[in-house]
Design a protein that fits this description.
Order of helices and strands: EEEEEEEEEEEEEEEEEEEEEEEEEEEEEE
Largest sheet: 6 strands, antiparallel
Distance between the termini: 8 Å
Strand order of the largest sheet: 14-15-16-17-18-19
Structural class: mainly beta
Number of helices: 0
Helix content: under 10%
Number of strands: 30
Length: 329
């Protein structure tokens, strides 16, 4: 079995990520822990926290109930990017060219690398934001669908409608598909066709016994892994119509123990799976082969993250028992 380096923290850990080879763990109370030649802590936001990794700049972006948005560098340095007084920043997203999106209430803001801030108003509360893989474009998840905005231009937003509460959003790595998680224990997808007058096709991905709180695309974007069931539900997106008419893979099935977090390997067609009892497993798409990475712990796995070379896997939990798995160990 691979070796595990444990890290016990107080309270709920909302996110984990690698900056270079350094694993970071962001707690719900605003403290950012890292294992960098010892256990070190950065205090950024005051109070409850939202956190995401910025791939391009290798930083963490955090937002919190204090109305502040920070960038956390690999050495733990915290830089204030934006502040919205008396507002709770509930959603953050990191994009290309140093852009950062953050949202509170019905407003999404995008801060560009030069400090310019663009503002986008929605008709309903913003529940999730994601950047397109190419071009400065964002998708905003909201009640009854999602909205697409071009950040740098004053073009008309594109509304993608589907009844229900949409709580999270993600673009496929090639930008052809947009997928939202829903309050109604389902995923919903749209095929994004850039040709003038082209129809935007719907994709319904249903049958989950619980809400989908974690989604992860495979390295080449052929698969979308998701939580919300007693197995990792992995939808095929290789064909031009995505998963329409196709059954998903079900990996790492464990009876009545629910999958709470998923993270696809950065190179291989493998997914790391975290469960409600704290167990962590890896499963391969091609033959469903499973490898146990960590035995059950104190709380449900809340976040998983691979290092860039895929040799290390960090895991975080709702009970604060975290750690790093050395796959080769």
């Amino acid at each position: 079995m691979p070796t595990v380096a444990p890290l016990d923290l107080d309270g709920h850990v909302v996110a984990t990520a690698f900056l270079g080879d350094v694993p970071f763990f962001a707690t719900a109370i605003g403290a950012i822990h890292r294992l960098d030649h010892g256990h070190k802590v950065t205090e950024a936001n005051d109070g409850l926290l939202a956190c995401v990794r910025a791939e391009a700049s290798d930083t963490l972006v955090t937002g919190g109930e204090d109305g502040k948005v920070f960038s956390i560098a690999a050495d733990g340095t915290a830089t204030l990017l934006a502040e919205v007084p008396r507002k709770w920043i509930s959603v953050v997203a990191a994009g290309p060219q140093g852009a950062v999106a953050f949202a509170e209430g019905r407003t999404t803001r995008v801060r560009l690398a030069d400090g310019t801030v663009k503002e986008f108003a929605e008709s309903r509360t913003v529940e999730g934001v994601a950047f397109a893989p190419k071009g400065l474009r964002i998708a905003v998840a909201r009640y009854n669908g999602a909205t697409l905005h071009w950040v740098a231009t004053a073009g008309q937003p594109v509304d993608l409608e589907w009844k229900g509460a949409h709580t999270g959003v993600t673009f496929s790595p090639d930008g052809r598909f947009l997928v939202t998680s829903m309050q109604e224990n389902a995923l919903h997808g749209w095929k994004l066709d850039t040709k003038p007058g082209a129809d935007t096709r719907h994709m319904r991905m249903t049958g989950y016994p619980a809400k989908v709180k974690s989604m992860s695309w495979s390295a080449k974007g052929k698969w979308l892994a998701s939580s919300g069931a007693p197995a990792a539900i992995v939808w095929p997106f290789a064909s031009k119509d995505g998963p329409m008419g196709k059954a998903p893979l079900e990996l790492g099935t464990r009876g009545d123990v629910m999958v709470t977090a998923v993270a696809c390997h950065p190179v291989e067609e493998v997914v790391a799976i975290g469960y409600s009892d704290g167990m962590v497993m890896a499963a391969r798409f091609s033959d469903s082969r499973e490898v146990l990475l960590r035995r059950p712990g104190k709380g449900a796995v809340s976040s998983l993250a691979w290092s860039k070379n895929g040799k290390l896997l960090a895991f975080a939990s709702e009970a604060g028992d975290c750690g790093v798995v050395d796959i080769a160990g």
